[in-house]
Amino acid sequence: MAYKLMAAIDVGSYELELKIFELSPKNGIVMLDNVRHVIELGRDTYVTGRVDFKHIDELCETLYKFTEVMREYKVTEYVAYATSSIREAENRNIIIDRIKVRTGLEVKIIGNSELRFLMYKTLSVRKDFERFIEEQTALVDVGAGSVQISLFDKGTLVTTQNIKLGSLRIRELLYRLSNDRQHFYWLVEELINNDIYTFKKMYLKEKSIKNIIAVGDYIMYFAMKGGKYTENMTREQFITRFDSLMEKNAGQLSQKMGITEEQATLLLPCAMIYKRLIEETQTENVWFPKVGLCDAIAAEYAIEKKIIKIGHDFDDDIINAAKLIAKRYKANQNHIAILEKNVTTIFDAMKKIHGLGNAERKLLGIAAILHDCGKYISMSKPGEASYNIIMATEIIGLSNREQKIVANVVKYNTEDFFEENNQLDTDDRNDYLTIVKLVAILRVANAMDRSHKQKFKNSKAVLKEDNTLVITTYTSDDITLEKGLFKSKAEFFEEVYGIRPVLRQKKEM
Amino acid sequence: MNEKKDISIPEYYQNRELSWLKFNERILLEAKDKTNKLFERLKFLSITASNLDEFFMVRVASLKDMVDAKYVKPDIAGMKPKEQLTAILKETKEFMERQYNAFNRSLLGLLEKQGINMITYHEQLSEEQKLYVDTYFDENVYPVLTPMAVDSSRPFPLIRNKSLNICVRLKGEEEKFATVQVPDVISRVIELPKTADVRNFILLEQIIERNIDKLFCGYEVVSACPYRITRNADLSIHEDEAADLLEEIEKQLRKRQWGFVIRLEIEDKTDKQIIRFLKNELNVETHSIYDVNGPLDLTFLMKLYSVDGFEQLKDEKYIPAHYAISGEEDIFTQISRKDILLHHPYEAFDPVVDFIRQASEDENVLAIKQTLYRVSGNSPIIRSLARAADNGKQVTVLVELKARFDEENNIQWAKMLEKAGCHVIYGLVGLKTHSKITLVVRREEEGIKRYVHLGTGNYNDATAKLYTDLGLMTCNTAVGEDATAVFNMISGYSEPRQWNRLSIAPYWLRERFLYLIKRETKYAKEGKEAFITAKMNSLCDKEIIEALYEASGAGVQINLIVRGICCLKTGIEGVSENISVRSIVGTFLEHSRIFYFANGGNSEVYLASADWMPRNLDKRVEILFPVEDAEAKEEVIEILGIQLADTLKAHVLVGENYEKVDKRGKKLLSSQTYFCEAAKEKESKAGNPAGRLFVPVIVKM
Predict the structure, then answer these.
(1) Residue B697 domain-assigned?
(2) What is the three-class DSSP state of A458?
(3) What SS3 state is found at A443?
(4) Nearest 5°: phi and psi at B120?
(5) In this structure, what are the phi and psi dihedrals at residue A406, rounded to the nearest 5 degrees?
(6) CA–CA separation, A250 vs A296, rounded Å?
């Protein structure tokens, strides 16, 4: 058979969703089935910090029913992700374990940036996407727990920011405080305004937004009118529709739109976020592509299994995002450019020895780009500061695990590293080894540009049979400093790999 | 300039109960119609009686409830419940008189002319016949009778709904009453030995009445009279509170036997003391007592219809044709080629049964999902579903336990399917699932494919021979997606965010119909092509009628074919001048729901499980689906055209009354006969072996 079936499960903050997909090179991604069940896990997490045991029970029961639907299609491959309501819950490990025991499903908690990157990947398969992001465009994803705003310009990602302002979160915060509908709107607006103002000040500055790409579950209801889905609206159309909806209370909205009152109460804060963004910017068009986490899971799966091909290079976006962070923290751009090049040269030469793949190569490149950002905070403890910056910043496309690897690699580039003393915050043995291997390369490469004068512009690295890695640089510059400081870094490298790095200079004529 | 009329005033609407009575009157007209064969006329008369029973059990009972609860809200036509009840009681009494007049004055005589002697009173028996019935009583009837005396220590027993009984006044030391149920284990129509060329029939209650004294030794039987009661049979199910819907319905079904008495039928000339006694014991009001001039419960005529040997007095039995589906190729291949429209009963229901059967046996079928509202006694569909589960397929069946008068039947099916390993859903809280949809999920070389059958009628192979319905088989991806969503929704998952092709009640269907009607209004105003042709069983939704009135006012030509209730009035100046309504009552029960809209020249045709009634639009799960395949669409449009041209079996609504079609200058046409003939012609063109009597066995060499 020329197709593959897979299931995607989204354990969301407001509802659980299962989609069954048929993937084939011929027809691409075709959704076969879609079941949803409303369970407001976010209501527990955002208010009490834990998911209530009754909800855990309902969650497991529904997921078990999902497995029955999967059995119906004889689907064995699946990807199940849990988002912020589980991620932020204190009892998340217990929840994941209960699900595993009662349903057999392995649910992975997905980090925010990983989630957004997934969405972005899915969208990028759509034709309109490339056209939109040629102009200044904000991809705004309003979820139950947070809002992610990613800015694009000239076809590339400029920045991405997460604001804890999701529909469910807002409703839970304000619903009980409000006396009536009008008062509720007023409170929501006030709450949103503050965050939108900060975002604008920090990231938009003189730039403006021409297009908004609106994604997320609740805004889809906004785009539904008379049983039909409107994919595009002008600024005026959006405002008119918003005003007409705001005149109604949740009950009236539910009746008019054929949605539940619960959904109506979530649509209101969500629409308000978009409206305020539109008002604060020069937005002309709003695009409502229908894409959810399950679609994103399927797209990623299909790309990974090479069932579908995409033209866009996502690694470029990640690297770009990392460079923007480095720029924000005033890192030496020339230095990180040469460092990024040199770590890659060494990594590639050592391929047979370290046994790492492209994913780690990408992480090493990002670590090189971000290795200096901590100096913006502290010159004395740049490693620690860099670590904190990396862990606190959204780097689109990196999972929480990958983010930790990068942060640790950067940290131990400058800080002493003692083997097996549990100084790394990772429990995974493989991750530990990856970090160590990458630190060794980063240290050596960093030493090659100790003076930050890019003397090692043209370098080659060759692994010799006598267990040496000969790094040859073609330069007429004086490299005494680099050579002198190289020794200590080379020792650590040798300790890790059993290979001794040797620096050689060939003078350029 | 024309003043805009207020189209919501009650004068523009008819009361639904009175409109229904007019429908029953049209069936009575068929019983009186001399152009119909005699036994067909008996059948029509029998139908009027069973229809009336149901009308009392449900509609009159519900009105009585409203009156008792002092509910005074007027209906669509401005009538308060009490006014409606008064009008209904008057109408039904007159109607029953007309029923018995047709029986006594016309049909009995005609039967006699055909050599059929229907002995309605035992006093008419000859000496030989008396001997015969007395022996018959002693040997067959007596052992199954349970006479029940009523006195201070023995209260009046529970009299079952619709059962026939005999009340006896006894004289002993003191006067007593007793009651005996006419047993339903023995046929009510009993044939007596032939006399000359005449075949004689008598009713069981007359045999019992004649021999009643044998049951009360030591007493003198003063008088004995048959009686029959109709009870309130509307179930009040507390779905929200019920932990198990199946158990709750079983409980309520038992209670149905205890519903209050709505009607007491007695023969005229019944002993006045017996009437008084029954009135007291059964707690019946005087106006609810109906004394009839003839045998009680005319549904026995259906039994007479089934007696062998009178084929010349019946219409030739129509054997459904086979043409749209070939029996030689698997059904999935045929559906893959093109959408298949089925027009029952002209075309056999077998393709639908085969569809489920093949799916149950096909190794590539992963799942079968179906909604069942009413199924036949020995349903091949149920058997296939059970087999499918046995074959490891995922089988999901929604069995609507609340299908009125089929509750018991459906409970049995639900239990049986569950036992076979199917996932059975008993229905939805507060809603009846009336939609007729089947989804078959099949794994094929190119991917997963969904085959869907959607219909206007039930998955009932028995009634599919009598009801006119349309069904569509398709593997259209958009419809398949919607069908999947329908089953997910009724399995308890959230409703989909949007539908591709189907419109579902109760959430979306009303809005969709209103949109489609209003779109015609808009086009008419813009001078574009605008018309509506719609066929259904009943039309009584005020919002829909208002939209139709508005459309008519805007110049939309509206042709409606409404079999039963129609609360709309035609010919109101400025309101409904452009609306025509006709009702077709024929051998087959008109049951299909078809909706055809001009849409400014880009016409759209839909089929549905729903009528334009509030209950269909607000309280049920119903499906409206488009017919998009050009050939199938043409066929549906042609069906409507033929029905609109019916001059023999159609009645036209003029104001609020029905008249026979004015045949002058028109071709004489019975649409049902036309469809029968056309189907046979199609079958012979298709050369379908399934329709042939002699099918050669092909030996593969």
Answers:
(1) no
(2) coil
(3) helix
(4) -90, -20
(5) -60, -45
(6) 30
Instruction: Please tell me whether the overall predicted TM-score, pTM, comes out greater than 0.80 for this model.
Output: yes
The domain of B395 spans 331-498
B350 shares its domain with B467 = yes
Number of domains in chain B: 4
In a domain, B447, yes or no: yes
Residue B168 counted as domain residue: yes
B477 and B604 in a single domain? The answer is no
Closest C-alpha among B426, B409, B416, B347 to residue B375: B409
CB B341 within 8 A of CB B426: no
DSSP B379-440: -HHHHHHHHHHHTT-EEEEEE-TTSTT-HHHHHHHHHHHHHTT-EEE--BTTBEE--EEEEE
Q: Is A74 on the interface with B (CB under 8 A)?
A: yes
The gap between the terminal CA atoms of chain B, to the nearest Å, is 83
Q: Are residues B345 and B416 in the same domain?
A: yes
Euclidean distance between CA atoms A408 and A412, whole angstroms: 6
Indicate whether B139 and B208 sit together in one domain.
Answer: yes
Interface of B with A in 468-527 (CB under 8 A): 481, 484-485, 488, 491-499, 503, 507-508, 511-512, 515
CATH number at residue B414: 3.30.870.10
Name the closest residue on chain B to residue A4, using Cα atoms: B447
Check if the interface score ipTM surpasses 0.90: no
Q: Is residue B315 in some structural domain? A: no
Amino acid identity of A249? Answer: N
pLDDT per position as a tens digit, A154-190: 877 777 777 877 887 788 777 666 666 677 777 888 8
- B148-150 β-sheet, strand order: B148-150, B175-181, B164-171, B220-231, B261-267, B289-292
CATH numbers and ranges of domains, chain A: 4-111 (3.30.420.40), 127-290 (3.30.420.150), 314-506 (1.10.3210.10)
Cβ distance of A2 and B445 shorter than 8 Å: yes
CATH number of the structural domain spanning residue B85: 1.20.58.310
pLDDT, one tens digit per residue, over B90-140 is 999 999 999 999 999 999 999 999 999 999 999 999 999 999 999 999 999
